[in-house]
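Customer escalation, tier 2.

The customer says the design service returned an amino acid string that "doesn't look like it belongs to this structure." They asked us to rerun it and document both sides in this ticket. The original structure tokens are below, unchanged.
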């Protein structure tokens, strides 16, 4: 059992710079809850391991997770980030600019995720990060499996959902959806899945290669 001190140490293992700190301040002002520093570092790590050139993010917020992802992607990589709140995306663009990200590397698309995602190209993306409406998580998985190339990775934030997922007595729609999503991904023949206890939980899976 990991202690609270060790968990805190792991969360702060990769320190955030002034750009990310400012992005978090913007998030607090507009009522957005960004990924933790540990979750952000994990996203950067995954993007780096994948040498990601094309990433989709559902839930732009003020750019905290997006900047972490961009810092792990290839120098020519493009982040496509979707959010229903155009004002949040404006703040995210400020974050990306302050972080030295060229404009062409971050494509912000305002709109509902399930209306935007079907317009994106099949099998084109290396990583899909989902941090939107929790009750839509199952639909995000369906879209992610279409969007990802073989070997690509899908990641869901809030996979522990404030300690509610592990408690069978918690049966509200959001908790039930996230719990069911975990079961679906763990049993899916085309996914290699893992649940990481960083931040509020990251549920990740690699889309396996299928023989021709």
């Amino acid at each position: 059992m990991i202690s609270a001190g060790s968990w805190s140490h792991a969360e702060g293992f990769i320190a955030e710079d002034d750009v990310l700190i400012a992005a978090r301040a913007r998030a607090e002002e507009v009522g957005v809850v960004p990924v933790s520093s540990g979750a952000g570092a994990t996203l950067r790590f995954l993007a780096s391991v994948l040498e990601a050139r094309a990433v989709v993010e559902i839930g732009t917020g003020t750019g905290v997770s997006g900047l972490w992802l961009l810092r792990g992607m290839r120098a020519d990589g493009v982040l496509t980030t979707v959010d229903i709140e155009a004002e949040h995306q404006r703040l995210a663009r400020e974050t990306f600019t302050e972080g030295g990200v060229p404009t062409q590397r971050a494509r912000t698309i305002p709109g509902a995720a399930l209306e935007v995602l079907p317009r994106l190209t099949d099998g084109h993306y290396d990583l899909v990060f989902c941090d939107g409406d929790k009750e839509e998580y199952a639909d995000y998985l369906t879209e992610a499996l279409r969007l990802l190339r073989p070997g690509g990775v899908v990641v869901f934030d809030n996979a522990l959902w404030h300690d509610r997922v592990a408690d069978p007595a918690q049966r509200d729609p959001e908790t039930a959806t996230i719990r069911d999503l975990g079961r679906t991904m763990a049993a899916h023949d085309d996914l290699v899945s893992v649940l990481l206890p960083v931040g509020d939980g990251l549920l990740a899976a690699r889309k396996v290669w299928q023989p021709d």
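Tier 2 assessment: The sequence is consistent with the input. The chain has a mean pLDDT of 96. Residues 173-187 form the longest helix (15 residues). Sent an explanation to the customer and offered a walkthrough call.
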